[in-house]
Amino acid sequence: MKTLRAVVTGGATNIGRAITEQFIGQGGRVVVGQPDPAVAAPLVERYGDRVIPLRVDVGDLQQCTAFINEAVRVLGGLDVLVNNAAITGSPAIAALAELTPADFSRMVAVNLGGVIFCSQAAAPHLRAAGGGVIIHISSINALRPQRGAMLYAATKAAVSSLAQSMGKELAADRIRVIAVAPGDIRGDTSVAQLAAMSSRGVGSDVVNQTPLGSGTPADVADIVAFLCSDRARFVTGTTWVVDGGLLA
Predict the structure, then answer these.
(1) Domain range for 116
(2) Tell me: the pLDDT tens digits for 7-49?
(3) From 152, 156, 210, 228, the catalytic residue
(4) Full-prediction pTM beyond 0.90?
(5) DSSP per residue, 174-243
(6) How many domains does the chain have?
(7) Strand stretches in the chain, DSSP E
(8) What CATH number does residue 210 fall under?
(9) Cβ–Cβ < 8 Å for 14, 89
(10) Is 47 tagged catalytic?
């Protein structure tokens, strides 16, 4: 049985870490892309060479191609790319009156440009492998924007749109592209992020409003694993909502 070869940007923390561990649990090897690879040290300590941390700032778009190519080199090929890295939480909060050109450029570069150019770099390698899967981590805010985070919501809506366009464009190469939109997911940094938002006078539009209660990063990782499996072979070009009934 072939070993799964995956790349997860932002794969050492929160949802990204859960996805990384899910792939490892399936016997895979994962390249974790982080601006500071040292944050992946606990994963390396636990899983050894099944986790390979590489440095990348996906907001520096010229780094995306070099990162993907190096990841493919160390993995010996590529089966799955998860575009998870994004500016989220308190740093993503900027009301219309507060938004600056620098805020705009950075968030669009990371949340949208990184998705595009990592996918662009990965596509030839997935094609060479006979097909594969690209997952974009979107957000429930793509469908129900958070107050005070209009640009963040817009970038996530664009990410969901990219899944549609890429899904059509890459289907002939047997490359499936799906966006996953988490709702109220509580990770390691959730408490600090909610406190930071509260200190700026911004309340959450999703916290404590979910019929099934808040979710965990593992809830998202389980869906990602399914979508990357042969059981989801007829799924592409869509957004899979993981929101515990928030939009119901």
Answers:
(1) 5-240
(2) 999 999 999 999 999 999 999 999 999 999 999 999 999 999 9
(3) 152
(4) yes
(5) TEEEEEEEE-SB--TTHHHHHHHHHHTT---SSTT--TT--B-HHHHHHHHHHHTSGGGTT--SEEEEES
(6) 1
(7) 5-9, 29-34, 51-55, 80-83, 132-137, 175-182, 238-242
(8) 3.40.50.720
(9) no
(10) no
